[in-house]
Design brief:
Number of strands: 8
Helix content: 25-40%
Largest sheet: 6 strands, antiparallel
Strand order of the largest sheet: 2-3-4-8-7-5
Structural class: alpha+beta
């Protein structure tokens, strides 16, 4: 467990360092993926899904986080690039008997004209939502401090 925490701290430090180099206010897809990846647990075969998502976050074109409840989220690694994932206004998930399975189910990207592009789920990992939110808050605070330090005094 200590090795896992050390890895998470190192990954968070790397994300913060990368964020410090970024010129824009938003994190890049790679920075977001690194942040979420550092708060993901060991792979699981499936998770319970009752037909609606509480939210979702694209993490580049081959991963995303989905919230099934406000305090429950999953990192989905896809088998390859998923067309329009970063730009779509809506997604869906296939499921079987109220569960989404790795290597079987798909993310459905809702594209223009109601075309669904299926993207196969390679791996599912639970997210530590509390730790993720705390890290996001720390990252925001670090960015504010950095911006304040850059403002010249008159």
């Amino acid at each position: 467990m200590n090795a896992m925490k050390s890895t998470m701290v190192a990954a968070l430090a790397a994300v913060l360092a990368l964020a410090g180099c970024a010129t824009g206010a938003k994190l890049s897809d790679q920075e977001k993926l690194s942040l979420y990846d550092s708060h993901a647990g060991e792979p699981v075969n499936s998770f319970r899904f009752f037909g609606s998502l509480n939210g979702w976050t694209p993490l580049g074109d081959s991963a995303l986080a989905v919230w099934t409840r406000p305090g429950e989220a999953w990192l989905l690694d896809l088998t390859g690039p998923c067309q329009d994932l970063r730009f779509t206004p809506a997604i869906g998930l296939t499921s079987n008997m109220s569960s989404v399975y790795a290597r079987f189910d798909k993310v459905l990207v809702r594209s223009q004209g109601s075309i669904n592009f299926p993207c196969h789920i390679a791996q599912i990992r639970p997210l530590d939502v509390k730790a993720l939110r705390a890290s996001e808050n720390e990252l925001r605070a670090a960015r504010v401090e950095e911006r304040e330090a850059e403002v010249p005094e008159e």
